[in-house]
Amino acid sequence: MTEAENLKAWFTENRRKLVSVKAVEEMAGVPASTLKHFLDGRRAIPEHHLENIENVLSTIGYQSIEQRNFL
Questions:
Q1: Which of 5, 30, 54, 56 could form a disulfide with 34 if both were Cys (CB 3.0 to 4.6 A apart)?
Q2: 21 domain residue, yes or no
Q3: What Å distances lie between residue 5 and 15, 39, 50, 65, CA to CA?
Q4: Is residue 69 situated within a structural domain?
Q5: What does pTM read for this prediction?
Q6: How many domains does the chain have?
């Protein structure tokens, strides 16, 4: 599983309802709709944005593949 696939899997239907994708994009400093388009399957997520998005989501429980494999 790639980190992008891990990110997409983390955003379950319920999490999409509870977590503002727009707020994550703003806090991560990525262009508007970058994460939204990725989650909707319209485009890939650029690798250089993944780390910033992961850092924001880690504050609410997201674990990267590396973190999950460490535990």
A1: 30
A2: yes
A3: 15, 10, 11, 10
A4: no
A5: 0.87
A6: 1
